[in-house]
Amino acid sequence: MQFAVEAWAPEYGAPMEEADSLASPQHPVLLDVEVPISQWAPLPAGAASAAPACVAFTDGVRRVDARVWVTTPTGTRLGLCASYAAGVVRATVPEDGGPRRAEVVACRVGRGLFTGAAGAEAISARHTRFAVHIVDRDEPDRLSLALQQRMGELEVELASEAGPADLVVVDGPLRGRQHVPNAIGYVKTHQVAYLPPSVEDVVGELVAGERTPLFVTTSSWSRYSWYLRLPGASGHAWAGVVRGEASADLDVAEAVRLANLSAACLPRFASSAHKDPRAPQNLYPIAGLERALRHRLGDPALIYRSLRRSAA
C-alpha cells in the first residue's frame, strides 16, 4: 500500500477536492489561447519574465462578533454583527540588489450590522460602532454573503489606493477587481475541474516554477486562467498547485505577461510547512497580512461583552 499525506493541516480542509467531487465548468473552456491544444505542455520557468521589482499583495479577513435579533416596527429579524478588514502588503527589491522588503502600506477595519430588518439602525457599543447594512433576505447564508461582499469592496478600495506595482496579487478570485492595473487573482483551492482529460495531465507534469498555458473560463464572468506549481510540495499530482486569473478584457499578450510575472516571482514567496499549516500555497506576505489584519480587528471577547451591555 502507498499513501500521501496532504500538506495542509486538517483544520483548513484540503486545497484539492477529490477528483470525482469536482464540479464541471458552467461553459466549455477555451484552450487554444496561448498555444494550440496540440502543443499544450509545461512552460519552463526560464520562459518567464524577470521577477518584478515591486509586488503588491491584497487580502481581507472577517469575523462574526455576534448573532443578534433586530426588532423594528415591522417585526423581529435575524442579523449579524461582524468585523472585517482589508490591507495591502508591498514587497520590493532595492535597486542595489539588496534583500526583499515587505511592509503593510494600507489597512482599514470596518464593522457592520447585517440584517434584513427594514428600519434597523447602527449599533453603538462602548468600544466600537456597527454601521447598518440592510440585506434583502435574512437567511444566514445571505447575511454571510453580504459580509463577504462588503469585505471585498474594501479590498478593492485599498488595492486602488496602494500605489503602482508591477504585479498586484489578489488573494482569491479576481472578480470585482479586474480594473486594478496589473492585478491577478490567486486561487489556492480547487473545486472545479476546468481542464478536460486531453490536457489535464499537463498539471501533473509541472515542476516548481512552471505553469500551464493560458485558458479562458466563463461562469458569470470571463477570465484568463493558468495553473502554477510552487516549490516545497510533494505527494500527488496537484500538490502545491495554484490557479492564476487575469481579466478577460486584456489582450492575450498582456495576460501572458502577467502569467509570466507570476511564475517568476510567486515561487519566491511560497511558505514552508514548518511555518505555515497551508504551505506552500499560503504565501508569506499574505499570511503576514492576515495576522496583522486579525490583530486590527480587536479582542472578540471585549467586543462581544460591549454588545451584550449595549443590548441590556
Tell me the number of strands: 10
**Cα end-to-end separation:** 61 Å
Radius of gyration based on Cα positions: 21 Å
Q: Kindly state the percentage of residues in helix.
A: 10-25%
Residue-averaged pLDDT: 88
Q: Indicate the proportion of strand residues.
A: 25-35%
How can the largest sheet be summarized? Answer: 10 strands, mixed
What form results from the Cα inertia axes?
A: globular
Order of helices and strands: EEEEEHEEHEEEHHH
Determine the structural class based on helices, strands and strand pairing.
alpha/beta
Outline the low-pLDDT stretches: none
Give me the side-by-side strand order of the main sheet: 4-5-3-2-1-6-7-10-9-8
* Tally of alpha and pi helices: 5
Textual characterization of the structure:
- With 312 residues, the chain is an alpha/beta fold.
- The protein has helices at residues 140-161, 197-205, 252-265, 284-296, 300-311; strands at residues 54-72, 75-92, 101-115, 123-124, 129-134, 167-171, 183-187, 215-218, 222-229, 241-247.
- The chain contains 5 helices and 10 strands; from the N terminus they run βββββαββαβββααα.
- A hairpin with a 4-residue loop joins strand 4 (123-124) and strand 5.
- The model has no long low-confidence stretch (mean pLDDT 88).
